[in-house]
Structures are given as C-alpha cells and as structure tokens.
Amino acid sequence: MKREIIITSDGSTSIHLPEWEESYHSKHGAIQEAQHVFIKNGLSLCKGQSVSVLEMGFGTGLNALITLLESHKNKQFIDYVGVEAYPISSEEVIQMNYSNQLNANNFSEFFSKMHYSNWEESVTISDHFRLIKRKQMFQEINDTNQFDIIYFDAFGYRVQPELWSVEIFIKMFEALKKGGILVTYACRGPIKRAMLEAGFQIEKLAGPPGKREMLRGWK
Question: Is residue 1 assigned to a domain?
Fold first, then answer.
C-alpha cells in the first residue's frame, strides 16, 4: 500500500495512506495528539513509579519517543513493549522530524536506536527506558497481568474495525494488571460498547486538537 510523508498542523510529520485516506497520526498535530492522549491522560497518572507500557501500533515510534522523554524528565523507569505488524522503512524513519519538533535533538540517537534495534529482543535504550519491539498481529497478543498502561493506537475504526472488536479488547483487559488503564484517541459507540463488554470501566475525556472526545478504560 502506498505511503506518503505529510506534515501535520503542529509541524510534526506523519505517514498518510492515500488508498485508505488514513494517517498514522492526527492531521491536526501528531505530537499534540500523542502528548494529549498517551502522556497527559495515560502516563501522567503513574508518576513516581516504574511503569510497564504496551503500545498497540508502534508505527513511527513517536509515542515511544515522547514516553522516553517523560521517563528522563521524571526520573522514571519504563519497560516499553511496542507491537507492530508492518514496520515502517529505514527511509521513512529518517524523514520523521520528531526530535527536532520536540526540541530534543540530543535524544535523536535514542530514536534511531529504537527503530534499528532487533525485533523480539529486549534493548536498553537509556538508563530509564527499556524496549522490546514485537512484530505481531493484534490477534496474537496473549499477555496476562503484565502492563500498567496500554496505548491503543490502531488505525481508525472506519478502515480496520476488526482491531476494535470485543475479542481484541478482551486481550487488552487480560494484558493489564489490576488497576491498569488503556487510553486511545477513539470514542465511537461500537468501541465503547466493545470495551464495556470486555470488562473495562470507561470514561470519556476531552480529545486532542481536532477531536471532541477520547476514551480511557480501567481494569
């Protein structure tokens, strides 16, 4: 499927799939969306403790990078697992401008290390951040009571409704520790119903720029 590099409204890059009319991040701002959904309404709830994070849709590595930056800022150790069935290419990695847009050029080597490290191996990216990338379909997830937070960042319901099913959210529920949370940019009726059926307590929150609402689910 054809992929194009685009610049979103906050100046940060993303990847656009013309055939689906779908992008890896919000066209209203890739960095703004990631910080609002996954940091402000996810990771920030776990300050002062070591945290295990599962990202469903590793994609461009943006969510991993901003999480690493937070880990250094807060002196917080993070074990991070990124699941991705279709990794982006080396050429696409080079075109991502996140380190520059985040005023974190001194962290650019960490971003490269994330992408060029071996899949299925635990890699120490920094003193505060350990990463395992798993080349895996969402349907293959079988973790149990392992994660404090899940970043659910799949392509939208419109193009891949099967990734937002009850079956997938049951897997997410099982993967979380008791008291763990799942955060996602989405807030459609079928998604809310699927999360509730899977066992989550859910809350609607104000969405990132360009989106009215988002969801957070608790185990």
Answer: no
- pLDDT tens, residue by residue, 107-144: 999 999 999 999 999 999 999 999 999 999 999 999 99
Residue 3 placed within a domain: no
Q: Are strands 4-7 and 13-17 parallel, antiparallel or unpaired?
A: antiparallel
Tell me if 122 is assigned to some domain.
yes
Q: Is residue 23 part of a domain?
A: no
pLDDT single digits (tens) 188-217: 999 999 999 999 999 999 999 999 999 999
Q: Supply the CATH number for residue 103's domain.
A: 3.40.50.150
Distance CA 51, CA 53 (A): 6
Dist. CA 88–CA 25, nearest whole Å = 14
Q: Work out how many domains the chain is built from and give that number.
A: 1
Rounded-to-integer distance, Cα 86 and Cα 201, Å: 31
